[in-house]
Design a protein that fits this description.
With 444 residues, the protein is mainly α. Helices cover 50% and strands 7% of the residues. The structure holds acetyl coenzyme *A.
């Protein structure tokens, strides 16, 4: 194992930058100002309520730092994303997904032997427990793959109950549990696809991570899937680009659920459920559905743009906008290029790509999008690559989950090692009725 860097989210990793004065009810209070390694500053209000009886109100956590983390850095204004300090562009170009997963989970890039050992651990843990197949057999054919994925991941705690929590397991046990998840999620995803098309399950083989997934998805007992390097590279890249994104909805969910000290599998299951929503990871499915709608109903692209701008119309331009990025999402830029490469190599054209490009072109020059700083996000072009590979639309969010898994695990691990460790428990401002008497039913 490589020399470990300090990965825990500890107050010790923060620089002290003086104090912020807050005046409340005529009294002055001082709170520490802290700074991270990239110069981001925060007022540490941990003791605000204790000192003066107030809490802060920040619905949707738009301005709240929920943890101290050394995993992923984003500068949304500049369009920068780095894992453990390494720019996403370098990882997408040069690294493999497995290497990236190791980097996120262990904090450093693996040396050759470490990477070999990690790959072997993934291969050794790629099969799912045979008894789990009874679950698959009982599922309806049209079950949503995200429902299957979340249920199956949670059920890993039934079949592999030994890992209860970070503190109750030693490092070797935890490494196996993490490898189990990273490896088996692929198998579960591919089996759910086979179930939906009524084909026999294809067991994992001794291929590399992405090749193995494609094999389980598309090989049949009568025909082996023909692996090709462009598709494998594109898949690797997509998974790397999705591997972590600091405190987004699903990652915060993993941390919050995990902070009750529930087991790793249950925490990851919660993250998968959070990812499913169309405002988060489910957007990649919604993008393709919108593009299909435009194509099949011959909706002029300009008219569609007017529809998503109309405040009386609830629809949005899916795959556009981001809570953190106020610039082009760096992941979308890379995916857009890869999209062209994959379609070119497979000698395919996709009318949805033309529609997406036209939408982007119009939106980027439209005042509504310019004023609100809305740009394509990671989901805008990813679905077009998945379609070209043959992955059905309702599995796009599953692909996102496979990619995001190492990030969730790294964040779960970091959260457990954080100092101080606290269960996640926000407060609220109550606006319901003040005290009132119970009225018996006969008198209501
Ligand atoms: N289409 C049209 N208008 C939009 C869009 C969009 N995609 N996104 C934001 N807006 C508008 C809002 O209507 C709002 O306008 P207003 O100020 O006139 O009321 C303004 O831009 C700000 O939007 P918010 O919803 O306040 O921004 P927030 O940061 O809370 O939401 C979100 C971010 C949820 C991603 C939003 O941009 C959105 O719904 N996008 C479409 C769904 C999507 O692509 N999600 C994937 C995000 S990436 C990921 O999770 C992996």
């Amino acid at each position: 194992m490589a020399e470990r860097i300090e990965v825990s989210g500890s107050y010790r990793n923060l620089k002290q930058r003086g104090q912020a004065q807050i005046s409340l009810d005529g009294k002055d209070y001082a709170f520490p100002v802290v700074e991270g390694s990239e110069g981001e500053r925060a007022v540490d209000i941990t003791n605000l309520r204790k000192a003066c009886g107030y809490i802060t109100l920040d619905a949707g956590y738009q301005n709240t730092g929920s943890c101290i983390s050394g995993i992923t850095y984003i500068d949304g204004e500049a369009g920068i994303l780095r894992y453990r300090g390494i720019p996403i562009e370098q990882l997408a170009e040069q690294a493999s997904f497995v290497e990236t997963a190791y980097l996120l989970v262990h904090g450093v890039l693996p040396k050759k032997q470490e990477l070999r050992d990690f790959r072997n651990l993934l291969t050794a843990n790629s099969m799912i427990h045979e008894d789990m197949l009874t679950f698959f057999h009982g599922l309806p054919r049209d079950a949503h793959p995200m429902a299957i994925l979340s249920s199956m991941v949670n059920s890993l705690s039934i079949y592999y109950p030994e890992v209860v929590s970070e503190e109750d397991s030693d490092e070797a046990e935890l490494n196996i549990a993490m490898a189990r998840l990273i490896s088996k999620i692929r198998t579960i995803a591919a089996f759910s696809f086979k179930k939906s098309v009524g084909e026999p399950f294809v067991y994992p083989s001794n291929y590399t991570y992405c090749a193995n997934f494609l094999h389980m998805m598309f090989s049949t007992p009568v025909q082996k899937y023909k692996l090709n390097h462009v598709v494998i590279r594109a898949l690797n890249q997509l998974l790397i680009l999705h591997a972590d994104h600091e405190q987004n909805c699903s990652t915060s969910t993993v941390r919050l659920v995990g902070s009750s000290k529930v087991n790793l599998y249950a925490s990851i299951c919660a993250g998968i459920c959070a990812l499913w929503g169309p405002l988060h990871g489910g957007a990649n499915q919604s993008v393709i559905e919108s593009l299909e709608e435009i194509r099949s109903n011959n909706i002029p692209v300009k008219k569609f743009i007017e529809m998503v701008k109309d405040k009386n119309n609830p629809r949005r331009l899916m795959g556009f906008g981001h809570r953190v990025y106020r610039n082009y999402d760096p992941r979308a830029r890379i995916i857009k290029n890869t999209c062209g490469e994959v379609l070119g190599y497979l000698k395919r054209s996709d009318p949805l790509l033309d529609i997406a490009q036209e939408l982007e072109e119009i939106a980027l020059h439209d005042d509504y999008f310019i004023e609100r700083k809305l740009y394509p996000n990671v989901d805008f072009y990813s679905g077009i690559i998945y379609r070209a590979i043959g992955i059905p639309t309702n599995m796009f969010t599953v692909m996102f989950a496979i990619g995001r898994l190492p990030g969730w695990i790294a964040q779960w691990k970091e959260m457990h090692n954080s100092e101080p460790f606290n269960i996640g428990r926000p407060r609220q401002i109550y606006t319901g009725p003040t005290v009132q008497d119970y009225i018996p039913i006969s008198a209501r």
